[in-house]
Amino acid sequence: MSNFSRQMRLSSSMIRRLHSRAADLSSRCFTTMEGHRPTIVHKRSLDILHDPWFNKGTAFSMTERDRLDLRGLLPPNVMSTEQQIERFMDDLKRLAVNARDGPSDPYALAKWRILNRLHDRNETMYYKVLIANIEEYAPIVYTPTVGLVCQNYSGLFRRPRGMYFSAADRGEMMSMVYNWPADQVDMIVVTDGSRILGLGDLGVQGIGIAIGKLDLYVAAAGINPQRVLPVMIDVGTNNEKLLKDPLYLGLQEHRLDGDEYIAVVDEFMEAVFTRWPHVIVQFEDFQSKWAFKLLQRYRDTYRMFNDDVQGTAGVAIAGLLGAVRAQGKPMIDFPKQKIVVAGAGSAGIGVLNAARKTMARMIGNNESAFESARSQFWVVDAKVSKLITLSLLVGMLSASSSGLITEERENVDPDALPFARKTKEIRRQGLKEGASLAEVVREVKPDVLLGLSAVGGLFSEEVLEALKASTSTRPAIFAMSNPTKNAECTPEEAFSIVGDNIIFASGSPFNDVDLGNGLIGHCNQGNNMYLFPGIGLGTLLSGSRVISDGMLQAAAEWYLAAYMTEEEVVKGVIYPSISSIRNITKEVAAAVVKEAIDEDLAEGYRDMDPRELRKLSQVYWSLMQSNLLSIWCFLSNFPYTPDSLDADSSTQSKTLFLHFIMLKVISQGLNN
Ligand SMILES: NC(=O)c1ccc[n+]([C@@H]2O[C@H](COP(=O)([O-])OP(=O)(O)OC[C@H]3O[C@@H](n4cnc5c(N)ncnc54)[C@H](O)[C@@H]3O)[C@@H](O)[C@H]2O)c1
Ligand SMILES: O=C(O)C[C@H](O)C(=O)O
Ligand SMILES: [Mg+2]
Fold it and tell me: Where is the Malic enzyme NAD-binding domain (predicted)?
């Protein structure tokens, strides 16, 4: 071989090596500062974002995100360093301004920041703090402060948490899910940010709600924090303020709609269930237009549920049954209750459907029972139909379709249609289509006034005055809208206007009211947090294929409704305190497991044979009920076993035997 050709061979292999080294280097390097030499990083994915030496946060360009396996781990909008600094400074200044204006919101936000920083530094410690002080910190990491966090998310954003799937990721999601570092994910909470609490469309900022809900999964249900995944599906926003905000972190385009929207959610569902076939997906805070459609679309094929529709319905039913007991009546009297509901959105309709079914079951469980249950509800809404929107646009102020919904109303939402009152009926009651809430309350004299309207103060003085004429010995007011400012009324307003003898519940926490003379007006928190962690845990442990109505009903009616003692209910306490959320979650989960087995839906946990599970359930049902959560925490390597395992000597041997069987069952799954 001539020297020349040897040199050629050497140089071509060298060139190949150099090429591959260059390619390798280019995949591992990026610029930390414009105009500077590139940084070489030997890390990938979240490890980069969690490393203060390398992390550029939202300033990673799209090509860098692809090269460094970061795609989907950051909100989609790429920011410049200048924008990042501006966002940080804006936020800092805003806190100073707010602090002068009034203490409460900035104080709660400051607490959230401190907790969030702890979450970033040391997750174990974060959850220990949360669990030990759940009553104090649930209102910070969850409702109501989480709403404020979502509203201020652009300013608060420091380190990403969870995954973002945007409309721009179509066709990529199946590979993007592998950017998430955990091989096992048990729970996903997903939102598209279109209706965050009662705060409307917050776009990508809605990720905060998914994070807050999963904090409760960890704190209340003992789900391992390494196996939860908050998800934001960013399909744009119709919030004009966010669309114009140069510092907004999400896609700055109007929301996708129709088939295009469904295609994005379909792709997301397929991707997550392909990587984690046993995962459970909780849909959260989707506008009602999509909440029902997506629930119908997926509920028979995937392990999923909609918390606002189904979780809220269960919690409301438990409270409504509690209100019957508080009147000194048996629960079976529920079908006689007259109920006025304000707000026929995803939560309102969910409650109406479930309450109607519960009543029908109590009075015969047949067609005519179902029909007669319908007449116990009066629904008031303020939907502006498409036609009216159009007429408003062209300046013709016609009457909006608000007030009492009757069969006379045009363009009634099909989900609300079954509750449209018949004209003949309401004429007899002295009412008409569109009657105001106050008129309806005045004429119907209901036992219950329930709000899921997202309108703060909707239960005005006039409405509450009208409720004084209620035919109930103990009228109940459920002001369930969140966060605090959106509550339909405060407990002070309710007790002072309607009287000391009422039952009061709100979605966000309020303090009890001092009624004088040593009496306390109890303020219950009627929030779906009492159900969703147990629904998720029970579904996970049973390995149910889907989440059936029966499983949800079992959770609400068997357990939550019966949870309070007679003594408590008489005092007006119809929901438990948040401090007992772990105990409630355990029982809710046990009810869900049992029902899944009874309905033949349980497939066992991972490799657990369903027949074995059935046997286990029959023999050890009562024990499971008292030990399920401890066992789960223990076996899933969750570091914070909630209550000490039952060590009572008389039950110890049985308990240990149960632990042994459950250990066998669950370890099969964990070893997969
Ligand atoms: N406590 C809980 O556990 C819980 C659970 C879910 C939802 N929520 C709260 O319920 C509220 C509604 O949630 P959603 O998902 O049903 O929202 P949604 O937007 O689907 O429904 C709200 C409905 O209220 C109607 N409305 C608006 N103004 C009204 C008025 N003046 N009078 C009567 N109706 C009016 C709207 O037309 C709409 O149909 C939110 O504040 C949410 O935070 C609470
Ligand atoms: O998030 C909550 O506090 C309850 C409910 O899911 C809501 O949307 O308001
Ligand atoms: Mg919600």
Answer: 309-597
